[in-house]
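Hey, resending since the last one bounced:
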Amino acid sequence: MTTHGRRVSVLGVPTSAGSHNPGQEKAPAAWRAAGLINELRAAGLDVEDRGDLPVTPYRPVEPAGGLRDADRVVEVAQRVAAEVAAIRAPADCPWSWAATAPSRSARLTGSATAAWCTSTATQTSMPPSGAIRR
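The C-alpha cells again:
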C-alpha cells in the first residue's frame, strides 16, 4: 500500500484507573482486534504499532474530593506523556487511546474512544466500527 507520507505511532493505554467499574483497560486490545491498525494502513498511513503501556486495572476506592483514584490516573497520564515524548518526531503523529469512566479523575486521560494526534494538537473521535475516513 502506498502511504500518503504521513507516519503515525499508535500507543495503547489499557487503564481503568479512576473508573467506577472494571473493563475499560480492555479497549486497546479490542481496537486492535477490530482491525484499527490495518484500517489505518489501508487508509494510506505509515503505522508504527508501539503496543500497550502496562495494564492499570480497576481498583475499588472511594472518591476523595470528588476524584476517584486520582494518584493512579496521574501516574497513567505521566506514563503516556513520557511515551509520547519518546516517540514524537517532527514527521510523526503519535496516537494514543484510553477507555475511561465518567468520573472527573478519569476524564484527565480522555474519552471512551479517542485518539490524539499530538502534532496537530487535535482530538479525533474514532468510529467504533474501526472504519477510517479521510
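The domain at 7-125 is CATH 3.40.800.10 (Arginase; Chain A).

Sorry for the duplicate.
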